[in-house]
Amino acid sequence: MRDADGDSDTYSLQISVVADTAPSFASSGASRSAIVGQYFSFTRPSASGGNGTLRYSVSGSCSGLTVTSSSVSGRPSKAGSCGITWTVRDTDGDRDTYSLQLNVAADTAPSFASSGTSRSALTGQYFSFTRPAAKGGNGTLRYSVSGSCAGLTITSSSVSGSPSKAGSCGIKWTVRDTDGDRDTYSLQISVAADTTPAFASSGTSRSATVGQYFSFTRPSASGGNGTLRYSVSGSCSGLTVTASSVSGAPSKAGQCGITWTVRDTDGDTDTYSLQLNVRHRST
C-alpha cells in the first residue's frame, strides 16, 4: 500500500493447508455374546484422524440394554441378535462407522441326564466308574468333585481303584457353566467285604449197589459275593451227573468221584466232593 508521495507498508497472510483426512476406527466392528438376564457391557473404541473435533452418534438397540454414544450396558431381556452402530464425524463432515453385533442366548442351566446312580464294589477288587457328561448351559462347562472312598482315586471325570474298606461312600460331581448355573450328579458306592463262597464241609462218601437206584443232592454253598454258580466234574458208570445232583443205577462196581465247584461273581471258589463206593449186588 502506498500513499501520494510514495510511502508504503505491507500485510502478509500465511495459509497452512492440511490434507482432508477422514476419521477412522481401527476396525469396522466386533461381535459379542451375551446371556438373557446376565450383565453385559461394551465400550465403543475411539476413532483417530479426521479434522477438528470428532463427534460420535449412535443408532440401533438391544432389548434390555442402555445404548449411549460411548457404550452399551445392562441385562439383555430377549434372546436373539441385535446390532448397534456408532458413527464418528469430524468438523468438515467426513465420517466412519463401527458396528457391534450382539448374539444373546437364553439363560439355560447345564444338566445331567439323571441325578445319579448306585454301584456295588468289593474290597480289594478293581472298580471304575466314569462320570457322564452334562448338556446345556452357556459357554464352557466346568466340573468339580467332592467326596471320598477309601482306596479309590477320584477325579473330576472318574473314580477308579481297589476299595480298601467295606461300607458305603458317596461321590458328587458338580457342573457349572460360564454364568454360574449348575447341576449335580451323585454316585453311591456300596462296598462289600470280599468273602469266598463255602460249602459246610469238603465232601462226603456214600455207598451204592450195582443195579440199585441211587441218588445224592449236592448241598448248597453260602457266602461269597453276588450270584453263586455251580459246575460239576467226574462221572460214575450208569449215573446221571448234573450241577445239583447224582442219580441212577450204578452199572459197575468200584469207586468213582464227583466234584462240584461253586464260584461267586468275582471268581472266588470252593469245592465239594462225593466219593462213591459201588459194590456188587449180593445174590
Write the layout of secondary structure elements.
Layout: E1 23-24, E2 29-35, E3 40-43, E4 48-49, E5 55-60, E6 65-67, E7 71-74, E8 80-89, E9 95-105, E10 110-111, E11 116-122, E12 127-130, E13 135-136, E14 142-147, E15 152-154, E16 158-161, E17 167-176, E18 182-192, E19 203-209, E20 214-217, E21 229-234, E22 239-241, E23 245-248, E24 254-263, E25 269-279
Parallel strand pairs: 2-9, 11-18, 19-25
Antiparallel strand pairs: 1-4, 3-7, 5-8, 6-7, 8-9, 10-13, 12-16, 14-17, 15-16, 17-18, 20-23, 21-24, 22-23, 24-25
Tell me what the structure shows:
This protein is mainly β. It has 3 domains: 23-105, Sandwich (Immunoglobulin-like); 110-192, Immunoglobulins (Immunoglobulin-like, Sandwich); 203-279, Immunoglobulin-like (Sandwich), CATH 2.60.40. The protein has strands at 23-24, 29-35, 40-43, 48-49, 55-60, 65-67, 71-74, 80-89, 95-105, 110-111, 116-122, 127-130, 135-136, 142-147, 152-154, 158-161, 167-176, 182-192, 203-209, 214-217, 229-234, 239-241, 245-248, 254-263, 269-279. The strands form 8 sheets. Strands 2-9-8-5 form a 4-stranded mixed beta sheet, with no helix packed on it. Strands 11-18-17-14 form a 4-stranded mixed beta sheet, with no helix packed on it. Strand 24 (254-263) and strand 25 (269-279) form a beta hairpin. It starts with 22 loop residues before the first strand and ends with a strand. The model has no long low-confidence stretch (mean pLDDT 95).
